[in-house]
## 1
Amino acid sequence: MKLNIANPATGQQKTVEVDEERRYRIFYDKKISQEVEADSLGDEWKGYVLRVTGGNDKQGFPMKQGVLLPHRVRLLLADGHSCYRPRRDGERRRKSVRGCIVGPDIAVLSLIIVKQGDNELPGLTDNVLPKRLGPKRATKIRRFFNLSKDDDVRKYVIRREVKSKKKENAKPYTKAPKIQRLVTPIRLQRRRHLRALNRRRIDRIKEQKAEYDTLVQKRVAEKKAKVAATKASHK
């Protein structure tokens, strides 16, 4: 069985092939998102805790979260479901997916390191890879750098250096994402303007309704007077 192990703390990833069944038997009957102690994989894994995140069986069918079976099933999948990408709007299709319980028919198992043990693992814990793309939303940038509301978020955007592929001797330049949901003075001004327009529209509608009600009352009074005059002329 191949174990595709990722370490979110360092950003590293490694595929380990385990041939002896007694070593990877600890994953049997475990569901996706369950945590497993990895001591039986070897002495270097002592103290490590791994979480199951997915996998594929020997025919390449992916494991699907929520299907509590240790074998393949055919499900009617639609837009928004995992293991399926619709080609047209409203399209549904019956597809074969593997249940989320690990069994001996799994060829590749995806895992992440939840707790690090005593020993360093080369390719997983020995090096910290820099984060290529940082958060884009303003609140997520604040949470990432532990900022307060007074701090300027624009100064903390993660920029990455890019070199031109067309020109060899071109100067490298930096790229940064456009911050989403950033509250700026222009945004506040636009919000005030929209609220003022809304208030004006409501006031105009109230005035028009008052004018209409006055006109209706006037017409009703004229009609009553006309009816009364007609009755008086017949007497």
## 2
Amino acid sequence: MAVLEDRHDRTVRSCAWSPSGKQLATASFDATIAIWEENGSDFECVSTLEGHENEVKSVSWNASGSLLATCSRDKCVWIWEVLPGNEFDCVSVLTGHTQDVKMVQWHPTVDVLFSCSYDNTIKVWAEDGDSDDWRCVQTLSESNSGHTSTVWALSFNVTGDKMVTCSDDLTVKVWGVDVIRLQSGDVNTSW
């Protein structure tokens, strides 16, 4: 067993393997994200990502491992591009939530990002093909059959046509999407 320590100063809240299994991202209440690589029978911290103003709550790699998403109590979602040499470049800071962002999760087959928050919403983020900027393309909230309290987590089935969310409102909701439309590039497809 390997023990990864002496990097974070406060609670480690989230961890996620990259799709290749070669890197591990950890998120901490010390407002940092650590990137680890296996080195023999141990792990080495090869990069530390900084920028969030508060506790980092969640990390998630996209399916290809080229992007890493992070979210924080600072109400922001950051998207990091993975570069050669264990470098990471923040390509977007998404500021649509009004409260702590609890979790981020990439869609399993398309580069569309989902975030859930203390503000009772799930936001769907996609890259604007014309400008390479990321924008919110849909907000799932009480007004469209969403949750009425904090949304704690979300998960996708393997094909990505169903998403499940859970909330402080004591409900679990299963959402569906036309995954063929989504995969064909229509990021505005409604959930």
## 3
Amino acid sequence: MWPEGAIFVALPLLGPILVWLLAPPRMSNWCDSPRKQPWCPPHKVLLLVWTTLYSVMGYASYLVWKDLGGGFARPLALPLGLYAVQLSISWTVLILFFAAHALGLALLHLLLLYGLVVSMALIWHPINKLAALLLLPYLAWLTVTASITYGLWRDSLCPEHQPQPMGEKSD
């Protein structure tokens, strides 16, 4: 697996690292506001889950790359090209959500991302079943992330739907 596997596992982490470097002060304060969804995980849990999922997804892409013979041959164009597109959309979601706070755009990109990951799993399945299965936790997390994003987006449009912080009474 070394060094190609390590590169495939590390590559997806570049996006979150850049987002973290570009927007650290605003990121945690915004996500941990008192009006967030009550079931929304803390900021550090979000980062831990995303990091784990990106690493697993990178390993899955390595399995596909290896099973198709490695290198940059033509059979790799669709499976890894689709992976590259979804990875760039995933990084865009992080930028839109954490740095730009553009929740509507982040939600649209999440829906597009969900379709891309499902397509990727379907294309990867005949190549490497484990690689396709490793995408299932990512799909589950995209569902959670879309729910969180929708809730925050809805509350930003309709403040009366916002959950009340503990100790506050609504009128």
